[in-house]
């Protein structure tokens, strides 16, 4: 099986992929900045209104997660027995590396 492939036949798809990837990164940065402004303005408030209607809520939630580092430290055999290994394939644009 070949480990390399010429992308000339799918150049347009590659260009669309890399362009949209850059656009998404830019939009995510804009969203992050806007969220920061909103959060600062909200302070301790849990609801925000625009034109008399509730536009957003900002509430606390509690998340509980297993601390896998601690489990491995305290119960290494159990951690190994409960660990699943997955093989995934990642698509990365070379210029991003």
What does this structure look like?
Helix content is 46%, strand content 9%. It has 97 residues and is mainly α. It has one domain. The longest helix is centred in the first third of the chain and has 32 residues, at 11-42. The model has no long low-confidence stretch (mean pLDDT 94).
N/C terminus separation: 25 Å
Strand proportion: 5-15%
pLDDT averaged residue by residue = 94
- Per DSSP, the total helix count is 3
For the secondary structure, the number of strands is 2
Q: Could you name the ranges where pLDDT drops below 50 across 5 or more consecutive residues?
A: none
The helicity comes to 40-55%
Number of domains: 1
* Content-based structural category: mainly alpha
Strand order of the largest sheet: 1-2
Q: What gross morphology would you assign?
A: flat
Q: Please state the CA-atom Rg, rounded to the nearest Å.
A: 23 Å
Largest sheet, strands/sense/barrel:
2 strands, antiparallel
The succession of helices and strands, N to C, reads HEEHH
């Amino acid at each position: 099986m070949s480990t390399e492939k010429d992308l000339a036949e799918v150049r347009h798809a590659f260009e669309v992929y890399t362009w949209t990837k850059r656009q998404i990164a830019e939009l995510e940065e804009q969203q992050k900045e806007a969220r920061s402004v909103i959060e600062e303005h909200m302070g301790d408030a849990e609801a925000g209104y625009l034109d008399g209607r509730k536009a957003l809520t900002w509430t606390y939630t509690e998340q509980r997660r297993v601390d896998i580092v601690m489990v491995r430290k305290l119960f290494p055999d159990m951690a190994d027995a409960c660990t699943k290994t997955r093989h995934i394939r990642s698509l990365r644009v070379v210029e991003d590396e």
